[in-house]
Amino acid sequence: TNRKEEEEEDKDMNKLNAGQKKGVQEFVAVTRTTNTNAIKYLKKFAWNLQAAVTDFLEHPPKSTASSSSGGGAFSESTLETFFQKYQSEETKKETATDKKEIDAEGIMRFFDDLGINPESDLVTLVLANKMNAQEMGKFTHEEFTSGMRQLQCDSMVKLKKKIPAMRQELVDSYAFKAVYEYAFRFSKEENQKALNLDTACAMWELLLKDKWSLLDKWCDFLNREHKKAISGDTWNQILDFSRAYNSSLFGYDAEGKDAAWPVLIDEFVEEQLEKLKEGMK
Fold it and tell me: CA-to-CA distance for 227 and 155, rounded, in angstroms?
């Protein structure tokens, strides 16, 4: 930014109260954007940080997509070539764009070129979320091109430069929540409302293994006592629960402050506390 823009930013910041300034700082820490952009998005959502960050990540301002980030201005024809490099052979004969897609084999090549292991690297979920991909093992033409358009990437060189910012989304609690909730929609079978228990535990292992020390106990409990698919509500609440009770369940009050958690969580806590009591005898 030049001097004049910096002065304008300072003026904008000086008009804010302490809480709003803190909101701007947190917004900038997550999104790596300017104070001016942060203020614009936060005002749009009445200073709701989570809503503003989510909107920014889904609809970034045009200015962040600068053409200087490696390899010239964004071009639709270059983007089309980028898609075609990974497009499945069977759909190359198709003329209708809604029939064109990248299949599982193409996706593996795509991530290989990107230098990322899709089996274990969560940044693949961040990227799939940018594309709003609806099912595993497939990127439609619409999903791939709209995601790359949003990122302003028409080549692998440009996309590689965006990976550090995407990794940042996994560190920030607001941005991570969006990726976590998307993972449920992405992982479930088409036309199913709930997520198969084995898949749910595999996805939790990927998403929460370094964030929740009770995860193994939770999956063990589900496999013994629940043995059923996981609903979207339960999936979403587990993230909140893992943050509220990260390593210990002491202080859990099913009748009082914790009454809103689903019965399944109550049963899990009850069993774990019983086991602790048994161990102390």
Answer: 44
Output the six-digit token pair for 20. 């709003």
Q: For the beta carbon of residue 118, count every other beta carbon within 10 angstroms.
A: 19
Question: Parallel, antiparallel, or unpaired for β 139-140 and 101-102?
Answer: antiparallel
Identify which of 237, 240, 243, 268 has the alpha carbon closest to the alpha carbon of residue 254.
268
Greater pLDDT, 9 or 54? 54
Q: Report residue 136 as tokens.
A: 């595993």
CA–CA gap between residue 172 and residue 161 (Å, rounded): 19
Residue 174 to residue 87: CA distance in whole angstroms: 33
Tell me the two tokens of residue 236: 């979403």
Q: Which two tokens stand for residue 203?
A: 């996805």
Within 13 A of 147's CA, how many CA atoms are on the CB side?
Answer: 23
What are the distances in angstroms from CA 218 to CA 173, 179, 184, 203, 250?
Answer: 21, 21, 17, 13, 16
Over residues 149-169, mean pLDDT:
92
pTM confidence score = 0.72
Predicted pLDDT at 33:
79
Please give the residue that has the higher pLDDT: either 56 or 229.
229
**135 SS3 class:** coil
Long-range contacts of 205-208, Cβ-Cβ distance < 8 Å, separation of 24 or more: 206/120, 206/122, 207/122, 207/125, 207/179, 207/180, 207/183, 208/238, 208/239, 208/242
Check residue 240 and give its pLDDT: 96
* Residues sharing a CB contact under 8 Å with residue 214, sequence separation 6 or more, in sequence order: 242, 245, 246, 247, 249, 272
